[in-house]
Amino acid sequence: MIAADPHSVEWLETNGAGSYALSTVCGRNDRRYHGLLVAALKPPVARHVLLSKIDEEVEVGVKHELATNAYRDVIHPQGFRWIASSARDPFPRITWRVPGAVLEKTVAMIRGERSVAVRYRLIEGAHARLVVRPLTAFRPDHQLSRSRPGFDKPIEWAPGRATIRPVAELPELHFNYSDGEILPGHSWYFNFKYETEKARGLDFVEDLHNPFAVAFELEAGRDAWVVASLDRTKLDGVPALVSQESERRRTLAVFKDRSLDLLALAGDAFW
Fold this sequence. Notes:
mainly beta; Beta-galactosidase, Chain A, domain 5
């Protein structure tokens, strides 16, 4: 069993139309319903886990792996060791502190869109190189998947966008990103272990595919963005939409009581 710890706490993001993002504070997926983009193909139903997670590593002289994954016999990497804090105000946010830098990650669903926006921000330090690796599943949310042919199909490239469609029966998934360097991918990650599914007596092992990676040169005051979407082919306007959604959620927290405010936000997530 994975020992209970604060990093196992789950967070939930929804778009108000049946799609969601759900994971743990450290980003370790423990159940089949965890995913960074679980999209409703026929809103609000027919949910599919398209983007399971994004693994990150940061280099400030030395490389530090920030991701946390549970495999059959080991937890690797152990990025939870670098977690300095986490919060939800109003989006899930995690802060990593490594020697020479403090890095913040925020996850936000865009309301009404089947789009998840991930923002990276250098809080302390002059410069850092960040590499992000999306791990995809392309499966119904009640099922788990294993490695299978077809995921190495050619990627459609455009300025600031990569589009993949490894499963012909499912729609294209667009990755929109700010200035970054594309790195090769097309590799499988085998035998992720989902502890919650094992405890339920269900199948609990999954393989995920990495189609590519993006490297960003982070500087103070310059955010890096990755947006995975079924509906959007450009990054334009995303920061403003995330800001608008932040303000909308803040209008819900009007009770001047933290418990009631959290309840109002939770109720909104299931609207």
